[in-house]
Specification:
The chain is an alpha/beta fold. The protein has a domain of about 140 residues: 3-Layer(aba) Sandwich (Rossmann fold), CATH 3.40.50. It contains 11 helices and 14 strands. A 9-stranded mixed sheet has the order 3-2-1-4-5-6-12-13-14, with helices on both faces. Strands 7-10-11 form a 3-stranded antiparallel sheet. α4 runs parallel beside α5, α5 packs across α11 and α6 runs antiparallel to α8.
């Protein structure tokens, strides 16, 4: 029996996720949205692309959570997107009610599923999903660092004129302005970035990576979708194929990196049961301080969400 993945929210990112998954032919897909006809129309359009791709993925669209029953993985993209002038943090209260209601429906119909959270602000929303669902921490993961790391990799590759496949760079911390690029641990074919790029230029690349999402919002007047969708599909693939791939994701920390009781962007090994372990890196004092500052900002947002899970 083919795995089943449900995507809650059939907007730009949810649709992009469905397209990437269908292209990989990993699973059958359910797209759900509360907007009448939206998920149904997009699912029909995507289903008609499947034979052209020479694949057998089944795609359905619905507004009824009963159609998502017995999902192996549920991807939550539902919620309000950013608009120009907004930070991800501005969406916390608006999207908390969406995530809370969605998770309650999911646990009713797919109590054994793994949840992947994309709704902004990702780290607090992943924490909220964890508390509302009552799932073990292994089965609730947020998507953040994969996208941020890809943005950093692209900027480095363009700066050096090399293939992005040769660039190994990743980002920890909160998704967005408080992200912490791991410059010291990033390299091009094993050569440290600090040996390849002058300090001033490297600092500029870090800032550009940090503000890349805002740059896209200002251009599109809404959030990015293709790259976040690809990142979600990579997480789903690692779960369904049990690849044990290490990806930068938002996971529940219980002492890792000196952090306790919050979802945070860290390297995560992902397999069939969800988060298998957090892979720790040695940090210097500056890196640890930056992570701590990012964590405190997330804690501040989380503290305002208790009404949604108590």
């Amino acid at each position: 029996m083919r795995p089943k993945v449900s995507i809650i929210g059939a907007g730009h990112t949810g649709s992009a996720t469905a397209i990437w998954l269908a292209a990989k032919d990993l699973c059958d897909i359910v797209m759900l949205d509360i907007v009448p006809g939206l998920a149904q129309g997009k699912a029909m359009d995507l289903q008609e692309a499947v034979p052209i791709l020479g694949q057998s993925t089944n795609v359905i669209g619905t507004s009824d959570y009963a159609d998502t029953a017995s999902s192996d993985v549920v991807v939550i993209t539902a919620g309000s997107p950013r608009k120009p002038g907004m930070s991800r943090d501005d969406l916390a209260q608006v999207n908390a009610s969406v995530v809370s209601e969605t998770v309650q429906q999911v646990i009713r119909h797919s109590p054994d599923s793994i949840l992947i959270i994309l709704t902004n602000p990702i780290d607090p929303m992943a924490y909220l999903a964890y508390r509302v669902s009552g799932f073990p921490k292994q089965r609730v993961i947020g998507q953040a660092g994969i996208l941020d790391s890809a943005r950093f990799q692209i900027l480095i590759a363009k700066e050096l004129g090399v293939s992005v496949e040769s660039v190994h760079a990743f980002i920890l911390g909160g998704h967005g302005e408080t992200m912490v690029p791991m410059v010291r641990h990033s390299n091009v074919c094993g050569i440290p970035l600090t040996d390849l790029i002058p300090e001033e230029k490297l600092t500029n690349l870090v800032e550009r990576a940090r503000n890349r999402g805002t740059e896209i919002v200002n251009l599109l007047k809404t959030s990015a979708s293709y790259a976040p969708g690809a990142a979600l599909a990579a997480m789903v693939e690692s779960i369904l194929q049990n690849t044990h791939r290490v990806l930068p994701c938002s996971a529940y920390c219980e002492g890792e990196f000196g952090l306790h009781g919050l979802y945070f962007g860290v390297p995560v090994q992902i397999g069939r049961d969800g988060m298998e372990r957090i892979v720790e890196l040695p940090l210097n004092s500056g890196e640890q301080s930056a992570l701590n500052a990012s964590a405190e900002r997330i804690r501040g947002i989380v503290s305002g969400l208790s009404a949604f899970y108590t």
